[in-house]
């Protein structure tokens, strides 16, 4: 009995050790913590505006709103709400309205509704604007568009901008996709950058500012360069994914619930704009990590995708019932995908191979022939070439050169803005 008791204790100790090992201590300090340790340098004595959402927290989950509101010598006077609002209480696509923050009593101005670029009236009385939102590393995510428009507005009025830097969940090496081309600039493709750009939000802000990337938003008007401060992280390196940082993941928007969801967002989100073609897990517990439909044979799709020998990605069959959306309550069959060798994987191209596989298996279900519209697909691609060429042949090989054509040029350019 004594030996059994010791064995039980040993097993319990091993289990606790495993839990402790899995619960990593943060090895990265986000910009808000570095700013706090500096004594809120450059904010003391100024009237401060803040663009943030629930992802703006320190490693102990304290909100940047509350941190700045209670910081000695810092006068936080207004909040600015991007998509989903400063407290995350507006669902995807819903308009954010001007209101008052119940916790602090501060006015909250909407940057996702009738106004996306702050007006002169919204910025009245602001000396410096702080931005603190967790990015996902993909061009179509609207928060970086909000950042650029805030920088543009502040530059025009002589207001300083401070970006509190955070990790890029896709790492600092992954660059995929072609540049945005006119006339496909939009709020989901605001800048001439690849779809996956391999920069932190602070690095991207520096690039937008120095390269004049706000030029062209209103004709040929010269860009309004702002006085920009980036508060870097400590401990982050370019080879890190989010799980390597030890930081808690706070979903920056409702459909990005897990620390690895940004990887899958970049891999299926473009395809998800083909409404009526494929369920990508929105309305289920695996957003962006599945491809499914009520008419699909999961085994056939899995076998066809595996026949392409895509590097670094594996597939398994899955059946699920979405609890919202067009297929609510229906049994959907498809594949779930995983990145087994992330460095080797071409993450954005997985969705194009799904379009090819479905066309080969189900000629009457070809993506661009069954959907009701494709405007957002072209906008998130940044071009109509992908749709037009893929729609002719349904062969991914016919678009790869085009999709990849700007990557090396951007890699060379972006190195000028590396902080880490």
Instruction: Give the rounded overall mean pLDDT.
Output: 91
Give the CA-CA distance, first to last residue: 56 Å
Largest sheet: 7 strands, mixed
Strands across the major sheet, in which order? Answer: 3-4-2-1-5-6-7
Helical percentage: 25-40%
Radius of gyration: 23 Å
Given helix and strand content, the structural type is: alpha/beta
Number of self-contained structural domains = 2
Poorly predicted residue ranges: 1-22
CATH homologous superfamily heading of the largest domain: Uncharacterised protein PF07075, DUF1343
SSE ordering: HHEHEEEEHEHEHEHEEHHHHHH
Characterise this structure.
It is a single chain. This protein is α/β, with parallel strands linked by helices and 420 residues long. It has 2 domains: 225 residues, Rossmann fold, CATH 3.40.50; 145 residues, Aspartate Aminotransferase, domain 1, CATH 3.90.1150.140. 29% of the residues lie in helices and 13% in strands. It is built from 13 helices and 10 strands. It has a 7-stranded mixed beta sheet with strand order 3-4-2-1-5-6-7. The protein has a 3-stranded antiparallel beta sheet with strand order 8-10-9, covered by helices on one side. Strand 1, helix 3 and strand 2 form a beta-alpha-beta unit. Helix 4 packs across helix 5 and helix 7 packs across helix 8. The longest helix has 21 residues. The protein is globular, with a radius of gyration of 23 Å. The N and C termini lie far apart (56 Å).
